[in-house]
From TrEMBL:
Residues 5-101 form the PP4R3 EVH1-like domain. Residues 715-726 have a biased composition (Low complexity). PANTHER family: ATP SYNTHASE GAMMA-RELATED (PTHR23318), SERINE_THREONINE-PROTEIN PHOSPHATASE 4 REGULATORY SUBUNIT 3B (PTHR23318:SF18). Residues 767-781 have a biased composition (Acidic residues). This is Serine/threonine-protein phosphatase 4 regulatory subunit 3.
Length: 792
């Protein structure tokens, strides 16, 4: 048997009942020794690899659909399809299949599929039940026809027989002729029967019937029959919508009549599936699988035909980027490109790759810059959808374009800045477009999808570009809505609290929450760039202003941003937080929340619990030194007592080790200091504690430590007399002072906390988190006060 090569595409049906393209090649039929039979072979046209090797089994049911498709099942839930470029090739392979199986090639199916439930009782069914006799196509027999059509849907064998009968006798066109008669006579009963008949014929799931029903001279009558649903009081007006409301717009004239007819047909069939037909039940979900395949292959054919027309796409993009193009024309062009991109999702990966590269070469990204700036909301929405297709397909392609843009005098002409401004200026109260754009920005700045790039410097170059040209645009709304009094540093300490301009507008709060979510992502994934930006802009202080917002979700977003920073356990961040006294707004929010047991309360406590569990010594010392008086009354959790305990343990360990090694350290030659100690002595980042560090290394260390212990006991005695109830506000914290100043109204001792914790002269040993002996003596015998109940 000679080989006949024809160009085909191989498809398989996935678990979601969608066709996956496995590749393009040439099909042949030949004897395969290993399979011991005539088989279908498809070799890839690109490299000659074997895409398909399928033996033609005598018992396999093959179906021919739409003159260019052959579909069959090789195993449970494994369906295959060959889509031929030419009808002649399909006919020739179909004849080979029928020849092997001994079937008539004029039929569109080679076997009668039998399910298990029917196979068991096959012998009990009378032979006459396999023959479906259609009643005469008359008005008086419509009810009988409707009963027949609905009765066969549960039997695969009878569905096949009915489909053959409908095709052989030209029955469909006769039924549609009766529809026109019934509509002229306003025969509602007959129209209701025709609805059931046409719906049942669609559920037969036969491509050969679809070819007749969806032809130009039949499809509108089919839609008309489906308007008369017996469950509706008044019929729908689907035909009126399709013929008058829905207008087919040729943004560029389509000269190919076959392509134009295919577009019309696909739109109308999609309308029938999505709008007219009810959502199929669990038992009916497979009844329309062939209809889904019909639409799928039509879309593939449309995209392929448009791609092959080089002049068409060139003209589309030429007009899209032409400044002289009218806004209405550009709107139609953008909507066309959006639909074109949506149709392209049916292409196989390699073809989709070529498709988007073609769009990029034609100038899709510069065009998006233009249309995103238009005032038309529909145009902007369509442009965002197109941009999402491009980003999801290839973020690297978008990043490469952005970095190649000429640097203008103003940054707002850059594509990413245009996208950010669209996110900020979204007029939707629910910010639907802003949420979508935020997700796209997150994809673009995600280092994870930069790793596979052939350009190894993509991550560094793009992030440097983004932080230089785009980050200030992203954070502008945040900085504008968290302005504080610039003279606060010159005011008395009691009035040095940030004066927030917190947004009460819900839409603004939502926008700020989106920006904070993106910045939190940056903290997690951009170590160097975001750290530099936060330090230079004092960004965390501005974010924590939002802890005062009346919108709890926004306060939680601000808290989450700080939590991610602390979670990195980076001493640069820790020193920045300590120097700026940035725990104050968080603790104020905790105290202002009062006894309410809510998410804000739990999130703040979790932040301090993390610091305690991870034993971040510099932060523990800062919190206890500055805020413990305000927090010690919170007893429904042991977090703050635990912080105090760790603080006291560290103090004791440091003092013991320093005392034991005091004389030894001073006998050591200065040149014997190791590198770490030299770094410690040379560390001038915390200028406020510089003098104290030097004093601690002098001979009067013992005297300073005795003064510290006396001051500590005095503070404890004062707390017992003056702080019986819960503090309403935080004691005045040390303000942000000049580097040479060492005064503080909270710290009552000369010995600062930070150098004691940070010193590298001695090793630190972690002991179990036991209660300090002094605390055990002062604790009362009764159990700690439980968490208050919910209160308004």
């Amino acid at each position: 048997m000679s080989d006949t090569r024809r160009r085909v595409k191989v498809y398989t049906l996935n678990e979601e009942r969608q066709w996956d393209d496995r590749g393009t090649g040439h099909v042949s039929s030949s004897f395969v020794e290993r399979l011991k039979g005539i088989s279908l072979l498809v070799r890839a046209e690109s490299d000659g690899s074997l895409l398909l090797e399928s033996k033609i089994s005598p018992n396999t049911a093959y179906q021919k659909q739409q003159d260019t498709l052959i579909v069959w099942s090789e195993a449970d839930n494994y369906d295959l399809a060959l889509s031929f470029q030419e009808k002649a090739g399909c006919d020739e392979i179909w004849e080979k299949i029928c020849q092997v199986q001994g079937k008539d090639p004029t039929l569109d199916i080679t076997q009668d599929p039998i399910d298990e439930s029917e196979e068991d009782h096959f012998e009990e069914i009378p032979e006459t039940t396999h023959l479906v006799e259609l009643p005469p196509c008359e008005l008086s027999r419509l009810e009988e026809i409707a009963d027949l059509v609905t009765s066969v849907l549960s039997s695969p064998i009878r569905r096949e027989k009915l489909a053959l009968a409908l095709m052989s006798e030209g029955y469909i066109k006769k039924l549609l002729g009766l529809f026109r008669v019934c509509e002229d006579l306003d025969n509602r009963e007959g129209l209701h029967h025709l609805y059931e008949i046409v719906r049942g014929v669609l559920f037969l799931n036969k491509a050969a019937l679809f070819e007749v029903m969806f032809s130009d001279d039949c499809i509108m009558d089919v839609v008309g029959c489906l308007e008369y649903d017996p469950a509706l009081v008044q019929p729908k007006r689907h035909r009126e919508f399709l013929t008058k409301t829905a207008k087919f717009k040729e943004v560029i004239p389509i000269t190919d009549s076959e392509l134009r007819q295919k577009i019309h047909q696909t739109y109308r069939v999609q309308y029938i599936q999505d709008i007219i037909l009810p959502t199929p039940s669990v038992f009916e979900e497979n009844f329309l699988s062939t209809l889904t395949s019909f639409i799928f292959f039509n879309k593939v054919e449309i995209v392929s035909m448009l791609q092959e027309d080089e002049k068409f796409l060139t003209e589309v993009f030429a007009q899209l980027t032409d400044e002289a193009t009218e806004d209405s024309k550009r709107r139609e062009l953008v909507n066309f490109v959006k639909e074109f991109c949506a149709f392209s999702q049916t292409l196989q990966p390699q073809n989709r790759d070529a498709f988007y590269k073609t769009l990029a070469n034609l100038g899709i990204l510069p065009a998006l810059e233009i249309v995103m700036g238009m005032d038309d909301l529909q145009v902007r929405a369509a442009a965002i959808d197109i941009f999402s297709y491009l980003v999801e397909f290839s973020p690297s392609m978008v990043r490469e374009f952005v970095m190649q843009e000429p640097q203008q005098t103003e940054d707002d002409v850059l594509l990413i800045n245009v996208v950010i401004k669209q996110m900020i200026c979204d007029s939707d109260p629910e910010l639907g477009g802003a949420v979508q754009l935020m997700g796209l920005l997150r994809t673009l700045i995600d280092p994870e999808n930069m790793l596979a790039s052939t350009n190894k410097t993509e991550k560094t170059e793009f992030l440097s570009f983004f932080y230089k040209y785009c980050m200030h645009v992203l954070t502008a709304p945040l900085l504008a809505n968290t302005a504080h009094d610039k003279n606060s540093k010159d005011q008395p300490e009691s009035s040095a609290k940030i004066n927030p301009v917190c947004p009460d507008n819900f839409q603004t709060a939502q926008l700020l929450a989106l920006i904070l979510e993106l910045l939190t992502f940056c903290v997690e994934h951009h170590t160097y760039h975001i750290k530099t930006y936060i330090m230079n802009k004092d960004l965390l202080r501005r974010v924590l202003v939002l802890m005062n917002s009346k919108h709890t979700f926004l306060a939680l977003c601000a808290l989450r941003f700080m939590r991610r920073i602390i979670g990195l356990k980076d001493e640069y961040y820790n020193r920045y937080i300590i120097k700026g006294n940035l725990f104050e707004p968080v603790i104020n929010a905790l105290l202002d929340n009062g006894t309410r047991y809510n998410l804000l309360n739990s999130a703040i406590i979790e932040l301090f619990e993390f610091i305690k569990v991870e034993d971040i010594k510099s932060l523990i010392a800062h919190i206890v030194d500055n805020f413990y008086t305000a927090l010690e009354s919170i007893e429904y959790v042991q977090t703050f007592k635990g912080l105090k305990g760790r603080y006291e343990q560290e103090k004791d360990r440091q003092s013991q080790k320093l005392n034991r090694g005091f004389s030894l350290r001073y006998r050591r030659d200065a040149r014997s200091l190791d590198e770490e100690e030299e770094l410690w002595f040379n560390d001038d980042e915390d200028d406020e504690d510089g003098e104290a560090v030097e004093r601690r290394m002098e001979d009067d260390f013992s005297d300073s430590y005795e003064k510290f212990m006396e001051a500590k006991k005095g503070a404890a005695n004062g707390a017992n007399g003056a702080n019986n109830g819960k503090s309403a506000t935080i004691p005045p914290a040390s303000p942000t002072v000049a580097p040479n100043s060492s005064s503080s109204t909270v710290k009552t001792v000369a010995l600062p906390a930070t150098p004691v914790v940070k010193t590298a002269l001695v090793g630190l040993v972690d002991y179990p988190d036991d209660e300090d002996e002094e605390e055990e003596d002062e604790e009362e015998d009764q159990s700690p006060r439980k968490r208050p109940r919910l209160s308004s």
